[in-house]
């Protein structure tokens, strides 16, 4: 067996109101409150739109009402990592309240839902259901004032009808994805959306109500204020971070894929860039992974740096690219030529699975932040999940396994430690959740969610001038 070196990275800090720092998102929110919005207000009143049938609207309003008064863990769950949900209102640590006016409610009538049973064909049935939501969405968002966020509380009968005979809870056909279409409807109405399923409202979700409340509150706060509840302190100044991935465009040639880039700045600001279609000749027939031609790679990087410059009024000193596939020679050449003038570059492949496991000589799994360094150090194995001393817990099931971090052999200007520290920090930037961390950094970890939306034919028809760049539309 080859000998591995093992290193340990300290947990990145998060910044909250007043520049105060904490390592746990929930602990920081409870102690200091979220980062204030740009208008400087101390308390956020989130205007909530609601779409559903009479039952799902009533059940959703019941959940929002429970959130006002706080939700305690069950008796057996009173552990340090199970923070009680503190409640909302003027005196809440979360500094937010909900405003639910009647004019922001869109009710789908029972007769409409009954009529769906007579619609033949799965695709036509889903299209009709989306039209019901579209009508209500347009009506709600045209009100003055309009809601900050629209919650689509999926009717139980609708979910049963559209997932009939399927094990999955997701409503998806070969032509379209229900969630993605709702997200696009929100974009067309300049309003972020949130979907809630009937299992969650009935309390049959795998998460307890306290967890649902925490994640819902953080997600709604992020979407309503169009800003971050917390940010990082660890990112390097004047660095552009880009996660690049690919997706199939529905309704087009099955061999055609398109590229997307998720771009982050050291301030935590982020945006989405839609790249050009990629021809099938750029696909690796052995692995099925898509790669960019030199020209496509150059054009995509030029767009990323142009958008970065529009926000910072300067080009970055450093470019970091995260990708789940290895860098082909043609891609690398395009990324380099497109970033001419950038002083430092790091091209990094990040993969979720590897068979290696580390075991400690205690009852606990490896610590989050552990890095295993094999001989040669061509790649590293980083534990983004593991025992977390800050909450005295490993709150996942099974034995944790590391992610694979593989720097490019020739385009790598930064130490393994700094690269892994940045990835560890990016695992704490999913503002649609209040979890301590995710396994993958957001640069690649939420690519599937963004891709599902951009794969829709409706998204492909959006002109660049109307293309929604902000993350809160996709979350």
UniProtKB/TrEMBL annotation:
InterPro entries: RNaseH-like_sf, RNaseH_sf. GO terms for molecular function: nucleic acid binding. This is Piwi domain-containing protein. The lineage of its organism: Archaea, Methanobacteriati, Methanobacteriota, Stenosarchaea group, Halobacteria.
């Amino acid at each position: 067996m080859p000998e591995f070196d093992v290193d340990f990275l300290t947990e990145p800090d998060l910044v909250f109101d007043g520049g105060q720092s904490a390592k746990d998102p929930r602990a920081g929110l409870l102690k200091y409150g979220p980062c204030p919005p740009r208008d400087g207000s101390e308390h956020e009143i989130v205007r909530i739109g609601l779409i559903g049938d009479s039952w799902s609207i009533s059940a959703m309003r019941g959940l929002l009402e429970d959130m006002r008064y706080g939700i305690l863990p069950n008796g057996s769950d009173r552990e340090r990592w199970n923070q009680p949900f503190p409640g909302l209102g003027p005196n809440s640590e979360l500094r937010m309240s909900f405003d639910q006016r009647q004019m922001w409610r869109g009710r789908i009538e029972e007769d409409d839902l009954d009529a769906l049973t007579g619609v033949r064909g799965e695709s036509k049935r889903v299209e009709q259901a989306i039209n019901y939501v579209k009508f209500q969405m347009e009506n709600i968002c045209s009100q003055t004032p309009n809601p900050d966020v629209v919650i689509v509380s999926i009717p139980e009968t609708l979910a049963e009808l559209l997932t009939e005979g399927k094990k999955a809870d997701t409503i998806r056909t070969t032509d379209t994805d229900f969630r993605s279409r709702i997200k696009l409807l929100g974009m067309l109405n300049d309003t972020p959306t949130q979907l809630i399923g009937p299992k969650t409202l009935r309390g049959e979700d795998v998460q307890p109500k306290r967890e649902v409340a925490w994640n819902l509150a953080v997600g709604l706060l992020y979407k309503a204020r169009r800003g971050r509840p917390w940010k990082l302190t660890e990112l390097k100044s004047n660095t552009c971070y880009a996660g690049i991935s690919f997706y199939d465009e529905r309704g087009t040639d099955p061999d055609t894929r398109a590229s997307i880039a998720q771009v982050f700045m050291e301030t935590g600001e982020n945006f989405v860039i839609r790249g050009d279609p990629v021809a099938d000749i750029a696909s690796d027939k052995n692995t099925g992974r898509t790669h960019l031609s030199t020209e496509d790679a150059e054009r995509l990087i030029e767009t990323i740096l142009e958008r970065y410059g529009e926000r910072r009024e300067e080009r970055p000193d450093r470019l970091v690219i995260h990708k789940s596939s290895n860098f082909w020679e043609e891609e690398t050449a395009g990324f380099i030529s497109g970033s001419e003038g950038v002083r430092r570059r790091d091209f990094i492949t990040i993969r979720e699975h590897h068979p290696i496991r580390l075991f400690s000589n205690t009852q606990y799994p490896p610590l989050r932040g552990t890095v295993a360094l094999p001989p040669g150090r061509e790649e590293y194995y980083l534990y983004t999940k593991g025992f977390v001393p800050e909450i005295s817990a490993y709150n996942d099931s099974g034995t944790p396994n590391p992610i694979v971090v593989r720097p490019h052999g020739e385009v790598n200007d930064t130490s393994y430690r700094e690269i892994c520290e940045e990835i560890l920090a990016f695992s704490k930037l999913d503002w649609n959740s209040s979890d301590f961390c995710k396994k993958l950094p957001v640069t690649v970890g939420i690519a599937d969610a963004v891709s599902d939306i951009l794969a829709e034919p409706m998204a492909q028809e959006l002109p660049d001038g109307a293309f929604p760049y902000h993350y809160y539309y996709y979350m």
